[in-house]
């Protein structure tokens, strides 16, 4: 099992190019199931979750090919010959986003069988809202032997008015993909406004879907008879950009992040500025971060987009261990997303947790230690802490970080970090 050996203490300086967004790429891959024609996706990050989704599509019978060399971020999917409609437990348990195939399979083939995701490190991740929405579209759904079995009515799914009682990103995406082939109009209310939802809508529209309002809380979809192939470039990964921005700030460095979308990072930029960082936008697709001196304590509350992303919470906690004063971090999206606290504490951070609030008392001199990754973003926070800790930090179970960050150690090294992958 790979580990990262990090020698902390070097300010990061230079420029980094941001990868395509994993969370936009995953639904885009699932959307290719909606047509028997070729879908070509560009700017797909080379991360483990993408390979997992690729394996799932191949299990269903789709042809999935990955580009090589200069095309290494291209994936081509042809789902003309789908032989199975089942997302098996083995794949779903490693990646919850596998449930994104539910909507497309049901819409195009009239049935789907998807393993129910269990608990995970960051708390319960039910898909009850996906299921309720599909029932509104007329699907019959039962749960048996750990699987959700969904069946469309004779004549296929029917457009409906769907209200999400809570904002769900993949739920909105799943329902959008089901509704594009349903008969008539579907209106999704209280839909997620995350940029990844908008990116999926862009792809679906290129495939011939009729969608309005993606990026707002009300999405209107007019069902069409069939979709065709398309070529689409995935948006930049706002969480990766945010993570690198924190890397600049925590190490006392300066980084230019290129090929990103500053507009998707407003909440993070706002908090970085409040903490004292210098942030400028030299072009519409780049952000420059200059570390604050001194770094100030700030309070952060996670929210749905356009609020502060829960996927940036752990990284900001690492940052705030280095701020003068007390910061309060409130997590409102997931019930148990503080797994990184005890690991950061092993490195000398002073953080106390009460319910969904973490109180970070800074500034703590972090010292290198052996730490364990529990989930993707928690792992990123440990790497960030390692970059500023005195001495050596050994980060174990980095397969979590490989799920969502492409070659993170090489890219951090290219701007001066000392991070080595060891087996
Ligand atoms: C997506 C992102 C993940 C991010 C999260 C919140 C992908 C692949 N993953 O996950 O990185 O952390 O959004 O921004 O895009 N919920 C229910 N019932 C449901 C669905 C969700 O109760 O049917 C709850 C969840 O438990 C959670 C909240 O709603 O508390 C938000 O979850 P959701 O937006 O669905 O997260 P994901 O789409 O799984």
Task: Provide structural commentary.
The chain is of the alpha/beta class and 423 residues long. Helix content is 30%, strand content 26%. The protein has helices at 22-31, 48-60, 89-92, 102-109, 128-136, 169-179, 195-206, 238-251, 266-274, 313-320, 340-346, 376-388, 399-402, 408-414; strands at residues 3-7, 13-17, 38-42, 63-66, 75-78, 86-87, 111-115, 140-144, 147-151, 161-163, 185-189, 210-212, 218-222, 230-233, 254-258, 278-283, 286-290, 300-301, 325-330, 350-354, 357-362, 370-372, 392-396, 418-422. A four-stranded mixed beta sheet has the order 22-23-1-24. A four-stranded mixed beta sheet has the order 2-15-17-16. Strand 20 and strand 21 form a beta hairpin. Helix 1 packs parallel to helix 7, helix 4 runs parallel beside helix 6 and helix 8 (238-251) runs parallel beside helix 10. The protein is globular. Bound molecules: uridine-diphosphate-N-acetylglucosamine. Uridine-diphosphate-N-acetylglucosamine (UD1) binds next to helix 1, helix 5 and helix 6.
Distance between the termini: 6 Å
User: What percent strand?
Assistant: 25-35%
Oligomer: single chain
Bound molecules: uridine-diphosphate-N-acetylglucosamine
Cα gyration radius (Å): 21 Å
| Number of DSSP strand runs | 24
- Low-confidence sequence ranges: none
Q: Largest sheet, order of strands side by side?
A: 22-23-1-24
Total of helices: 14
